[in-house]
Please model this.
Amino acid sequence: PVIRDQSMFGIKSRQMKEVAAWYKIKDIVKEDMSNVNRFLDNEDGMKKIDRYLRSDINITESLFKIYIANTMMLSEKLFIPLDETVNATPSLVSNIIFGRELMSKGIISDGSVNTRYNREHIKNKRGGWVETYRYGLIKKLKKLDFKSYYPFLTVQFNISSETTFIVGYEEYKSEMGYRFWWSEEEVGEYGKTKWFYASIPDSTYGKNVIVRIDMSNEGFLPRYMRDLFDEREALKKRMKEIIKEIGQEKAGENVEYAGLKSRENAVKIIINSFTGYVGSEHALYGNLAAYICITGFGRYITQKVIEKFYQTVVSSDTDAIYEDISVGNISEQEANDFISSIVIGELGFKKCWIVME
Model:
């Protein structure tokens, strides 16, 4: 479970003491035990060994309490046996959720992503926008973070396995060679369907990918994401109330708080698993078109924000921009007003879900 934990962004390693420090477990003893014999011939050395071993046992027990609670909560949320969660492959959670939701719509998997799409494109698909614009020592750095970027892109553009399709390819010209348009078309007995089209540049594959998204029927994934966002916000709100009532120190020992924390972690695991899943070549319910849209729209909006505030931007990663505030200071309001002008003004959507903080 530690190795599969997707919530520890930026941790240096998954070794026991590193993970313990990440979770702020107390009394972490670090000692070079490569030569134990040097501790055995004196009382002080024996005390060091004793303290070292007791620390390891304490860490093991503390981490077990964290991960067994998370694992039990995830099992309860998915209605699956505990040992299935403990021994799960990385794709199990998404396979279960996608399978159940699409089955309810009469959609059954006919194989993995590998069998449904161009294998060359699968192997060479483009990811997020990561770039450095200024080098050297930056003393005053600020991070503007896209809030749950990929999940909210999913909601914004109604991206789901049953709504999103690759319909062709065209010549690649540049990283910003995007085109967007809307169309209303007759779809058999179902009447008119409103489609949002995009030509998304993929420099890794060397082509523009033309995709279309059904905007007349809400996909299960955007709906599921919104439900998870609402649940997580309610859990975090109650956790803050408990901290306010009894303080941060006592909250860690509070039964209700521990249960809320485990549930919040389970929801976070589910949210974070989806984007990687839809693009995984082995995913039974994956969708290359959905992956292309999520990462492609993400690159587009990120690059538009960078162009707008270029003078202050130092670097970017998949879901954030770093700026030098000795040069300028982009406010949340300023950034979000500009993003809204892209999503609503340029792309023609009625509401903007994408925000920076």
In short: The radius of gyration is 24 Å. The CA atoms of residues 119 and 281 lie 9 Å apart. The longest strand covers residues 192-202.
